[in-house]
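FIELD: query
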Amino acid sequence: MAEVRGQSRRDLGMTALVLGFFAAAWFGWGGGAAPDGWQPFLTVGSVVALIAAVAGAVVGFTSRSATRLSRDRAASRRYGIIVGIEFAAIALGGVVLGLAGAAEYVAAWVCLVVGVHFFPLAPVLRDPLLVPLGALVCAVAVVATVVGLTTSVAASSVAGLGAGVLLAAYAAIALVRGLRA
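FIELD: result
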């Protein structure tokens, strides 16, 4: 089975599935306090992201190759540790922001942690493109915070739109790479 940068067709399909699903979730989060006129873009983004997720599932689950994580027990363990730390950091930051009366910045915090988690995942998943994705998602978190602090636009709207676009785009890229593998 042909692989792209050490990733099988199944790996890439699963990437499209996971990131497409989470992109749709981000678009939904962004719609909670979205400014007038943003909702159609958030809705279209959600639909596109879900299409990428479904197509990724088809590619991933119909491929005969194994995923990187199912083939490599050490990689699977590192993946679990990274995701566990990610969830703990999200929870801790969310609690701290809530107790500090800054719950409106939880989305930006989650966006930052999600961006950071792509850096250690890149070598585990053998996907160096996760590094620039992580940097861009972190940048969205910073922009969302600044916009939330300086304008009437909610940080969650900026984080939701920005992270949604980036994750949906990456899901589409993974899907195309998977179809070519």
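FIELD: remark
The chain is about 80% helix and 0% strand.
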